[in-house]
Write a structure and sequence with these properties.
The complex is a heterotetramer of chains A (304), B (316), C (676) and D (539). Chain A has 304 residues and is mainly alpha-helical. Chain A is built from twelve helices and no strands. Classes of the chains: A mainly alpha (304), B mainly alpha (316), C alpha/beta (676), D alpha+beta (539). At the B-D interface, helix 2, helix 3, helix 5, helix 7 and helix 10 of B face helix 1, strand 11, helix 6 and helix 13 of D. Chain A: It comes from Peribacillus glennii.
């Protein structure tokens, strides 16, 4: 670097500037994506599986050969055939169609749970970590209280009281997961708060909100994303467990968990009723877990 | 040390109080009334009779007054009586808790015994096929709902081997052999997902420690790899593993609800579910309290274990 | 002087496997070391000096491996030895000590255990014998009271003591060769002096050969018999220590020696710099690796890698200039360029020209961090990080604040900036007590004072573009937004010597020195009057350090800035500061203008501190005052004069009475009872 | 551990009166099965293993209505009168026979019932009663206790004016007015006779049970096991055959089935048709008994809400439901039911009449809807609770699908059990509901309780003066045949003019037993009153 200053020849005009800020970020994310594809083969595979499920869910009505709720009174518990590639269930519903529509429920539960608990948890954690003292004490004790109840017990308590409904499953799982995000983000906020760039920003006069929004949250996205991805998989399992207890997704909604839990008594006669939902559920959870692993590797600065 | 335990207990009590107020209030806010439930089949019940039952159950007071009463009694160790069985809740829990504790203990022990060696092995054989296999099994273990695994186990055992664990729970002290026959499978199922996460944590933690500077010092001493790993690296990598175990105990305790039911074990898991659906307030409150206390004790043990492993974390 | 060669490294090449394939960490490293000799391997970060040390012992991470070359030790080629065989050599015949003694000792075992361990590995001793050996070793390395100390854990010891333990471990089996990898880098100068003294003593007693890996030319001058200069993974010069400092034969060595500020460096002249920075392993230049930074580089340097030319008296240099056939070409370059004139001195008279107007006044400032304990978090004491500090900063001057780690100098800087709240005392800025500033007023005030940090990595938000980072203060104060903001950021970048096009880059795309420039640009965004530079050049390579120091000086001249320059490096402070405050345990013990302080240090601590600094000149053998022990715990500072526990002149009064700050001469104040 | 298994403690429906019998071939439609023959001489000895999905909360028969409690209590206690069981008696025959009372007499006006107690009836030889004889004081104390405790049983006794004890072995009940169902109510499981020490509080009824029944309660280990041993002093000579009975608590259905398969249980409860078929395939020697379920699935509508106040709408809904296929697919086998559940035998309408009065006719249903002013149907919600188990929920889904076919767009709403029972159903906060009724044992309970405008379980908003009159009248008719005619008429009227609740189906359950379990002549009432005759044909 030549330390001698030069007179600035002038910079291009506004609109191009603004655009290129965006473009530079876009290019950065494109580069990151390329790097992810190059270095995380398993991550790419699991991401593709997840994308596939998302597509299935989004275009369910187009893909599914049958209405997932409509009962075909002439087709009870048929083994897989060309007409019903995964067979039919005890009420004559096409299992393949139910699995496709079930992706909607499972993904909805996952997305809603992760999104809400991530937002609430992050807000609480960041406030707790940034302000410390009494606020931190209060939030932490409440989080401790939630965490002290075993997650499934708490979910069961809430879901059983509220009754079976997808909405209630989401509420229950959200409450269960908030502390996980709050913990992580609090720790991250404590770490970031000590960073010199935060001190620099403070000495430049910025307030709490700015520091949290500009410096705090962007720098804790990596652990948040990893936790989110793992939580997603766990939510799908939790939804299935609650459905098994009869307090999860209510019929006739096609949910993988519900299909799985209701079908165990048909294991011998109609294994397809058990096999396919179980397989799909496990593959989805596996994909989210593997994605979480891949993201962890990818985002870990130590490995870069 | 004593001070430390006292300090932790005070925190614990605060947390339990927050927890129990939440449970206490939520249960009474949601629809569903225990008196109506108890008289549901009867139909022709007069207002007086309802009022009579309500007052018998102590539900005629305001929520706040009930909470004060309950807390006062709880301090003296009286957690109330079940609104349905009229049994003291402490008795109900005492009858069942050993089952859950034994189950949890066995599951944790099994998970540790399986997972830590597997994690070490996986880390040492990093990027070999055996490492990959262990990792695949571990992540698979996290992806299968445990109720599902338990059910398949029971169905397959009965179909293909004509055997399932003997029914009718026997305590370890009255009949250790039957007890172990009954407990080992459910403990194994519970251990599955726990050991999956322990394997992963042990592996990554060990690999991280193996990059630490002091490992180089030990190698520079001319130490064999076995000494490096078993004496130094392992102990240093245990802290995150133990933290994980402490947190996962919550998941494990939650899992007991389903597993106890599938394997017909009379633990406290079913107590709470039944209590919630029947609006048996004292039972639910007490059970939640017990779970909370259990979780805290486990985490206190974890904290003490920290100090035992790491002199830097010993309270003065 | 001719003694038997015990280790000879020949053409050693070590490669690392990375995502981008194999890269050479070191290439063609060749040197020998004789019995009882100390050979220093010196170089900046990334030069491969540590990798060389680790390659000898085959202690590389799993991603690294020796690709070629040999390491002959007692006729054995260590590079080809099996793991089992080399384990017998490690610790027994060749021992190593490392840079950071905290992270190099297993935190979970007592030091006695860790010393015992090496004995168990290599020697067949009875438990009693081993016990005795442990106590002997502890005594040998100067840890008194071994019987109880052996049960201490590493975290219970100070940095110096930990390094002593490391030395005890290394010497436990009486090795022939000790490889010391930056053994004092993490230590304070006073402790460094202790450890270097200890090493010399032990070498004299046991005749151990030492390979000393360091970046500090002062330490080299002090310790080494011979020096290997490495740059970008290869040896560029090899020489006896006296010859090296008196007549460096490689442009890099020459530039390096010239770029370090010394006590006798002219403060008014800019430092000699080496432009650019050490290349990363992936961006190795073609030809001579140093050519992009070399003032003499010609055509051939860019194309062909020079061999190691052997010169007179066992010296060698990897530079084409040493090739007789090319001498003419270089003669031309040597003639046309006068090195010093290429970087004209910046006008640096802001301070002297000013009328000594006070900008900031600190009076009896204190900062106590409470120690909380028990169930109710009772306050059971306080760490007195800053314990009654008074000084003033004049407009346009640079005030240096020196002291060892933990003395409270950084806290002082943060208190002035109100990043921390003062416990007691006051800070007046332009005559107004800073504590009176609230809300908007405080925000306005913040524009006038900014900070530059030590760590160039954590001081920039990795998620923001350089433009956003630099312009953040502008946005906060609504000075500029949109394109105006970006334009300003570009200007600031140009001002610190970077390109305005860099506004769209991210921090990870810059080297440490460049990041430090960015940090400075950000600090300058609000056009402040005062910059607090908190160890602003400490983390940089010496070649880059000089660039930044020059930049700071230049900016001061251009913008009439005042600096509070906090540093532990006395030579740097001497070079940049007009006046210096010396801190010890939260108090200022001596204040003077920098010339006075260096020529007439008065406080015993100042004197000890100055004498501890190794001088990068092997011809100077100065009398050294070695302070015993460590800095006391600031939670329980000694009574009276805090320094009395380590002061060789301490009297009764020092233990009981806090000394006053006495004026020695104009601007020279000392807090010591011994001064009358 | 489907949630049902726990909830049913209250209304207990899933547990299939672990029924199977070695019944002779005289069975009518309701009671068929492949029976291990009951021939051969009963052998004494052996212990029967029975699995319970749940354990009762407590054993006080007047404070709990749990079937699990009453099944246990049935082994311990006796009633004044009970129902007949035996190889020739059907599951749903309600023949009243002596129990603790050796005989009884009804006065001419039907207002006084006199019971004579057995001389040889003794309390179990357990403190504090220590095997003393039963006397009329015990009976009075028991009934006074029942009347003092709010609960399901109180209404059965509200016609009693006073109870008198002319001597130690005679008890007279004086009624306010003639009351036909009285004797049935005396045979009801709530009417277990307790020792007066229990009424006096000397026995903790919540955890102990000391009675006069065939078995003595040895140990009640909550949620694990309940053990009974033979009562050597039982008043029926030579009975019981068994040495003991063990109940084990096994909440999960799949586990119960696995336990039966692996011979850890001698009988198992409710099975799906598939499970049953698999079991039989695996072991063709298994016995099983097919019995009509003691209650039925009903669709009920809230008549205080439009459009369900319209008879034509209700008729349309009734016609739209494909009952026969539903029962076949969801339960495997069963019958179309009527206002009185077919398990009550002759008190229910004959099968042909139930079917002809409730045809499946989509076209007609559509027409009725059109006439009612809903040619394009309407939107509504169908409420169901998962507390009764999955079958009910499946049934509700079936109904929703059927309604869709006639244009009624119904949304299924699964309601949490506690809310369902305390907030929704009794408080008429619903449009349409699909659910079960309790195991009612008396036609009066089915009809008066549900259909009378003041009926205890009229949670439908039915107000029909004509029907009220008919319902009140049948209670006073003491002649059984005459009362039967009136009961059948009421049912016909209800099916034509009220059509609410709409009876859907009563399923037939096939419950297998191990081949060596003999005399397993289950009865539709609570209390496992057949246990005294059961014996084991094995060494």
């Amino acid at each position: 670097m030549n330390p001698a200053p030069q007179i600035n020849p002038g910079l291009p005009n506004t609109s191009i500037k603004q655009l290129s800020t965006k473009r530079i970020r876009l290019r950065k994310s494109l580069d990151e994506t390329k790097r992810f594809i190059k270095t995380q083969k398993i991550g790419v595979i699991s991401l593709s599986i997840i994308m596939l499920f998302i597509l299935l869910a989004a275009f369910a009505p187009l893909i599914a050969p049958y209405d997932p709720i409509e009962q075909d009174r002439s087709a009870f518990m048929l083994a897989p055939t060309a007409a019903h590639i995964m067979g039919t269930d005890d009420l004559g519903r096409d299992i393949f169609s139910r699995i496709i529509f079930g992706a909607r429920v499972s993904l909805l539960v996952g997305i809603a749970t992760v999104a809400i608990s991530m937002i609430c948890g992050t807000i609480l954690g960041v406030i707790s970590g940034y302000f410390g003292k009494v606020i931190d004490m209060a939030i932490q004790r409440v989080m401790d209280a939630i965490m002290a109840i075993p997650p499934l017990i708490l979910a069961l308590f809430i879901a059983a009281l509220l009754g079976p409904a997808i909405k209630n499953v989401i509420i229950a799982l959200t409450i269960v997961n908030i502390p996980h995000f709050a913990r992580i983000t609090r720790g991250e906020m404590l770490r970031i708060k000590e960073m010199n760039y935060v001190e620099a920003s403070r000495s430049a006069g910025s307030g709490a909100l700015r520091i949290i929004a500009k410096h705090g949250i962007p720098n804790m996205m990596a652990p948040i994303i990893v936790i989110a991805s793992l939580t997603f998989g766990q939510s799908i399992i939790a939804e299935a467990s609650l459905s098994f207890l009869g307090i999860g997704t209510p019929p006739p909604n096609p949910s993988w968990g519900l299909m799985l839990s209701g079908a165990s008594s048909y294991m011998e006669n109609a294994p397809w009723m058990v096999l396919f939902p179980g397989l799909v559920l496990s593959i989805a959870v596996l994909a989210f877990n593997l994605l979480g692993d891949a993201l962890r590797d990818f985002l870990d600065p130590k490995l870069n | 040390m004593v001070n430390y335990v006292i300090k932790r207990s005070v925190y614990g009590l605060i947390v339990l109080l927050i927890m129990i107020s939440f449970v206490f209030i939520v249960m009474r806010l949601v629809p569903g009334d225990v008196v109506a439930l108890q008289l549901s089949g009867a139909g022709a019940v007069s207002e007086e009779q309802i009022a009579q039952l309500r007052s018998e159950l102590g539900l005629d007071k305001s929520v706040w007054a009930q909470f004060l009463d309950w807390t006062k009694n709880a301090v003296t160790g009286d957690l109330g009586k079940s609104l349905w069985s009229k049994m003291p809740v402490t008795t109900l829990i005492a009858e069942r808790i050993t089952v859950t504790l034994q189950l949890a203990f066995m599951a944790i022990t099994m998970a540790i015994l399986i997972a830590i060696p597997a994690g070490i092995y996986s880390a040492m054989k990093r990027n070999t096929w055996i490492d990959h296999m262990i990792r695949v099994i571990a992540i698979g273990g996290l992806s299968i709902p445990n109720f599902w695994f338990a059910l398949l186990l029971i169905i397959f055992l009965s179909l293909f081997f004509g055997w399932i664990p003997p029914l009718g729970y026997q305590s370890f002290f009255s009949n250790p052999i039957v007890n172990l026959q009954q407990m080992i499978l459910p403990a194994l199922v519970l251990a599955l997902s726990l050991s999956a996460s322990i394997v992963r944590m042990t592996r990554s933690s060990l690999l991280e420690v193996l990059h630490a500077d002091f490992i180089r010092t030990i190698r520079a001493k001319g130490a064999k790899e076995k000494l490096v790993i078993m004496k130094h690296a392992l102990r240093n990598s245990l802290i995150p593993v133990i933290t994980l175990i402490g947190l996962q105990v919550g998941f494990l305790l939650g899992g007991t609800v389903i597993i106890e039911s599938i394997f017909s074990l009379p633990g406290i898991g079913s107590l709470i579910f039944e209590g919630v659906t029947k609006r048996d307030y004292p039972v639910v409150q007490a059970t939640v309290l017990v779970y909370g206390a259990l979780f805290m004790i486990v985490n206190l043990i974890v904290d003490i274990a920290y100090g035992w492993i790491d002199p830097r974390m010993r309270p003065d | 002087m001719e003694k038997s060669t015990i280790l000879s490294v020949d053409g050693l090449k070590t490669v690392f496997q990375t995502r981008h394939g194999y890269v050479d960490a070191i290439n063609d490293i060749t040197f020998t070391i004789s019995q009882g000799e100390t050979v220093a391997i010196v170089g900046e970060s990334g030069s491969g000096k540590s990798v060389t040390a680790l390659s000898i012992m085959k202690l590389l991470e799993s991603s690294g491996q020796i690709a070629s070359g040999q390491v002959l030790f007692n006729d054995m080629n260590l590079a080809e030895l099996s793991d089992r065989k080399i384990r017998d050599i490690r610790g027994k015949q060749i021992a190593m000590i490392f840079q950071d003694p905290m992270s190099c000792l297993d935190p979970l075992y007592t030091i006695g255990d860790q010393i015992m361990e090496i004995l168990k590995i290599h020697e067949d001793l009875t438990p009693a014998e081993a016990d005795n050996r442990v106590l002997e070793l502890l005594k040998l390395v100067g840890i008194p009271d071994g019987e109880t100390r052996r049960n201490s854990y590493p975290h219970e010891l100070s940095g110096g003591q930990r390094q002593r333990v490391m030395i005890a471990i290394a010497l436990a089996c009486r090795p022939n060769l000790l490889i010391a990898d930056e053994p004092t880098t993490a230590l304070d100068v006073t402790v460094q002096a202790q450890i270097l003294g200890l090493l010399k003593q032990l070498q004299a007693d046991f005749g151990t050969s030492i390979i000393l890996v360091t970046h500090d030319l002062g330490v080299v001058a002090e310790m080494a018999d011979r020096v290997i200069v490495v740059y970008s993974g290869t040896v560029v010069e090899q020489s006896g220590v006296h010859e090296l400092f008196s007549k460096p034969e490689h442009p890099y060595t020459e530039a390096l020696i010239r770029s370090i500020p010394r006590a006798d460096t002219d403060r008014t002249a800019p430092l000699h710099i080496i432009r650019g920075s050490v290349p990363g392993l992936h961006e190795m230049p073609s030809g001579c690796r140093f050519h992009p930074r070399c003032d003499y580089a010609t055509e051939i340097c860019t194309q062909q890698e020079p061999p190691l030319f052997h010169l007179e008296s066992d010296r060698s240099s990897r530079c084409w200039m040493k090739d007789g056939s090319l001498a003419k070409e270089f003669q031309h370059r040597l003639n046309t360029d006068n090195l010093d004139s290429r970087h004209p001195a910046p006008p640096n008279d802001a301070y002297t020209a000013s009328k000594k107007e006070i900008l900031l006044e600190v009076h009896n400032m204190q900062k106590h961090f409470p120690i909380l304990k028990g169930i109710l978090s009772r306050k059971v004491g306080a760490v007195k990080a800053v314990d009654g500090v008074s000084f003033e900063i004049f407009k346009g001057e640079t005030l240096g604040l020196v002291g060892e780690s933990g003395c409270g100098k950084s806290t002082t800087g943060r208190l002035i900036l109100r990043l921390l709240d003062i416990t007691d005392g006051e800070v007046k800025y332009g005559g107004i007590n800073l504590a009176e500033f609230k809300g908007r007023q405080l925000k306005e005030q913040r524009k006038k004072m900014q900070i530059v940090f030590q760590d160039p990595y954590s001081s920039l938000n990795p998620r923001m573009t350089i433009g956003d980072i630099i312009s953040e203060p502008l946005e906060i104060h609504r000075i500029a937004s949109g394109s105006e903001k970006i334009r300003r950021a570009g200007e600031l970048l140009e001002m610190v010597g970077l390109s305005s096009k860099d506004v769209y880059k991210f921090p990870h795309q810059f080297s440490g020195g460049q990041r430090q420039r960015i940090g400075i640009a950000r600090a300058l965004a609000t056009e402040p009057e005062l910059l607090v530079c908190d160890e602003a050049v400490s983390a940089l390579d010496v070649s880059v350090q000089a660039q930044i120091l020059n930049l700071l000086k230049k900016l001061q001249g251009e913008l009439a800035l005042s600096y509070l320059f906090i540093s532990h490096d006395l030579n740097v402070v001497k070079y940049i500061a007009d006046r210096i405050c010396v801190m010890y345990l939260g108090k200022i013990v001596e204040t003077a203008d920098s010339e006075t302080l260096f020529t007439n240090p008065t406080h015993p601590y100042t004197r000890a501190l100055l004498s501890s600094v190794p001088v990068p000149d092997p011809t100077i053998k100065k009398e050294r005052i070695i302070l015993e022990g460590d800095v006391p715990n600031p939670a329980k500072p000694p009574s009276g004069c805090a320094f009395h526990t380590r002061c060789e002149h301490a009297k009764e009064i020092c233990k009981s009475k806090i000394p006053e700050f006495k004026q020695m001469s104009l601007g020279h104040k000392v807090a010591c009872h011994l001064i009358n | 551990m489907k949630q049902s298994n726990w909830l049913l403690i209250i209304v207990a429906l899933t547990f299939l009166l672990s029924a199977c019998s070695n019944k002779s071939e005289t069975t009518s439609g309701t009671n068929q099965g492949k029976n291990g023959s009951g021939d051969g001489k009963p052998k004494s000895g052996g212990v029967v293993q029975i699995l319970n999905p749940a354990d009762p909360d407590m054993l006080d028969p007047h404070k709990t209505s749990s079937i699990y409690a009453h099944n246990i209590l049935g082994l311990v206690y006796s009633k004044l009168v009970t129902y007949e069981t035996g190889p020739d008696v059907e599951f749903s025959d309600y023949n009243i026979v002596p129990d603790l009372a050796k005989d009884w007499k009804v006065s001419e006006d039907g207002k006084v019932y006199t019971f004579h107690l057995r001389e040889n009836a003794k309390w179990h030889n357990v403190a504090p009663v220590n095997g003393r004889n039963v006397n009329s004081g015990d009976v009075v104390a028991t009934f006074e206790r029942i009347q003092s405790i709010p609960g399901h049983q109180a209404y059965m006794l509200d016609q009693i004016d006073k109870i008198e004890t002319p001597d130690d072995l005679t008890v007279e009940f004086h009624l306010k007015q003639p009351f036909a169902p009285f004797l049935s109510y005396m045979a009801n499981h709530f009417m277990w006779i307790l020792p007066k020490e229990a009424a006096e509080g000397k026995i903790n009824l919540e955890t102990a049970a000391i009675g006069t029944g065939p078995f003595v309660l040895d140990k009640w280990e909550r949620n694990v096991e309940t053990k009974f041993s033979k009562n050597p002093d039982y008043f029926l000579e030579g009975l019981p055959y068994l040495d003991g009975v063990n109940f084990k608590t096994v909440p999960d259905e799949d586990t119960r089935l696995a336990a039966f398969r692996t011979k850890q249980a001698d009988t198992t409860g409710l099975l799906s048709p598939q499970q049953f078929a698999n079991l039989m395939k695996q072991d063709p020697n298994l016995q099983y008994r097919e019995t009509l379920f003691p209650t039925q699935t009903q669709v009920y509508m809230n008549m205080t809400r439009k459009p369900f106040d319209n008879l034509k709408v209700r008729q349309a809904i009734a016609m739209a439901i494909d009952r026969k296929n539903a029962v076949k697919q969801i339960f495997g086998n069963g019958e179309v039911s009527g206002p009185v559940n077919p398990s009550l035998g002759k008190w229910a309408l004959p099968k042909e009449e139930r079917e002809s009065l409730q045809p499946y006719d989509i076209e007609q249903a559509k027409k009725l809807l059109k006439e009612a002013g809903y040619p394009d149907g309407f939107e509504t919600k169908v409420m169901v609770t998962d507390g009764y188990g999955e079958a009910t929920v499946r049934m509700a889904q079936w109904v929703v699908e059927d309604l869709r076919k006639i244009g009624i767009k119904a949304k299924l709403e699964v309601v949490e059990y506690a809310t369902y029972f305390s907030q929704k159903w009794p408080k008429l906060d619903y449009d349409i509901g699909v659910g079960f009724q309790s195991y009612l044992q008396e036609p009066d309970e089915w009809l008066y309780g549900q259909l009378h405008s003041k009926g205890a379980k009229n949670w439908y908003g039915i107000k029909n003066p004509e029907l009220d009159k008919m319902l009140e009248e049948q209670r006073t008719v003491m002649d059984e045949d005459k009362r039967l005619a009136k009961i059948l008429d009421i049912q016909r009227y209800a099916l034509k003019e009220v059509v609410n609740p709409i009876p859907l189906v009563t399923h037939i359950t096939a419950s297998p037993t191990q081949p060596y379990l003999k005399n397993w002549n289950t009865h539709a009432s609570y209390g496992m009153i057949h246990m005294k005759e059961v014996w084991l044909d094995k060494k």
